[in-house]
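Entry for 2-acetamido-2-deoxy-beta-D-glucopyranose complex. Fields follow.
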Amino acid sequence: MKATHKLLFVLCPMLVLVFIYYSSGKLHLRVWGQKQPPVSEEIVSVGRIVGSVFDQQGFLVNLDGKLPLNLVYKYENLTTTTCKPGYAAAKMTAIYPKFVQPAPMFLDRNFKRLAKVTNFVPPFGFKTQDRIIDTILTATKNYGLGPELDSLSCKRCVIVGNGGILANKSLGSRIDEYDVVVRLNEAPVNGYTRDVGTKTTMRITYPEGAIQKPERYEKDSLFVFIAFKPLDFKWLRQMIFKEKLQGTEGFWKSVARYVPREPSEMRILNPYFIQEAAFQFIGLPLNNGLMGKGNIPTLGTVAITMALHNCDEVAVAGFGYDMNTPHAPLHYYETVKMSAIKESWTHNISKEKEFLQKLVRADVIEDLTKGI
Ligand SMILES: *[C@@H]1O[C@H](CO)[C@@H](O)[C@H](O)[C@H]1NC(C)=O
Ligand SMILES: *[C@@H]1O[C@H](CO)[C@@H](O)[C@H](O)[C@H]1NC(C)=O
Ligand SMILES: *[C@@H]1O[C@H](CO)[C@@H](O)[C@H](O)[C@H]1NC(C)=O
């Protein structure tokens, strides 16, 4: 008799625990739609909020530009000319509840504490590169946008893509109104200011994409470095310490041999934005955390990801390839036609476009040239 009692005492709580564990596991899977065969192609999970349906990436399926009720009070009556504090992140969270805003733009001396990037090798993290990054950051000594921009309580950022869609739209003065103007790689300003503006807060670039002629660098902008492979960090170290460039075998095209910038004007972009854009936002193949076929987001999308975490309002211009107009120029500064774009091995343009379209449709970002 006593033994059965004892057994029941032990068995009952255990059964309850097993039940709770099992049902919470099921609930968890339902909510996030992972490890469960998709119910239909797009719609894989039903959230707890009645009527909210999320796609495989975790984005709300039904997107529109309307302000969610919880944001109406905060933003409804702000005019279009006042900067809306926290707007992009709030709207992002509304369509993508997993969004966690804090993520520094650039690596600083505490970079080893950025948990999400310590376990990935470049381009998704900085594993194996700690020492060289330490050396570089000791030389740059600066890790922000500069005192003036860092002290702004509300920042509006625009990412200027290099698309031909930017040509002849006279958006230059509109672009110059933003607090932070981000340009990519060698996109020229001189000779195109009517369309692309005059201001450059930062230029995000990797070795093969960097401006090669020193005289073509604008006077004051931050040189923001993004690494795709370990060799890229070596190149950056040589540029920072103004060393003679050595070991160029691993680059896929010729690279700049000299960057006319002081170390204090150089930054390393937080690699988390590459990782998050690839694996969370776009849903590119993880490939064991290594660079592989079709799992690298384009620089433009990495820059947008950075801005979602660090700007109050985000706009883009010069984004989008219109494959229906193969004779339109690919870039605003070249005559190379759209038809020259080849099926890319590294990028997945169509999958990436789906992500960008979600941001535009939900008015998380504003697309000044309407090409997305
Ligand atoms: C916004 O302005 C309108 C018109 O003045 C007013 O009716 C409304 O209550 C305001 N909304 C908020 C959230 O303050
Ligand atoms: C822009 O305008 C110039 C001058 O009118 C013209 O030569 C050029 O082809 C136009 N570019 C595009 C992309 O439409
Ligand atoms: C892009 O993604 C789609 C859907 O996952 C896939 O079918 C296609 O092969 C991918 N393209 C490249 C270039 O990886």
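NOTE: Residues 15-48 have pLDDT under 50 and may be disordered.
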